[in-house]
Amino acid sequence: MMGIRDLLLIALRAEMDSKAYYEGLASRVKNFLLKDRLSFLAGEEEKHRRYFQGLLESKFPGEEIIPPPSTPVPLPRLELPSEKIPLSELLWQAMQAEKAAEDFYVELAGKFEEESPERKMILYIASMERGHYRLLDQEREAVLQFEEADFIWPMTHLGP
């Protein structure tokens, strides 16, 4: 059974990975509107990372904070493939990761006392992950319309 420290380190790693994924995806799309949304998501994940970093520092002062190289919990691994994959598929993968992160954070929040600030903040982050899912779902729907029509013009969302 993992302790709170281990779970917080996993959360830290998950946020680091999510940020890197969104930054990588943003660097590969041409549509400035989608690029802006992906950059926004990367910034949100960075804020979450900073929160978990600070929580680890306050709960475990003086201990070295080294996130695991990967997350051992069932969070989908986000990787940008080198081969061409439709943007809709990459957004779907990100949506699944956001849903898994929300579930993980709800469970993590249960490890803290009912009215504790940590529990409330982690539940808030879980709700933000749900919002990220919805944002990605909207983008994916728009992308699917253009992929299905095999239609490309300067304002469409272009895949990597």
Structure in words:
It is a single chain. The chain is mostly helical. 68% of the residues lie in helices and 0% in strands. The protein has helices spanning 4-28, 32-59, 87-109, 117-149.
Keywords:
68% helix, 0% strand, mainly alpha, disordered C terminus, elongated, 4 helices, 160 residues
- Flag low-confidence runs: 149-158
Biggest sheet character: none
Give the C-alpha Rg: 17 Å
Q: Give the SSE string.
A: HHHH
Task: Tell me the quaternary state.
Answer: single chain
In short:
With 160 residues, the protein is mainly alpha-helical. It has four helices and no strands. The model is unreliable at 149-158 (pLDDT under 50).
How are the elements arranged and paired?
Blueprint: H1 4-28, H2 32-59, H3 87-109, H4 117-149
Helix pairs in contact: 1-2, 1-3, 2-4, 3-4
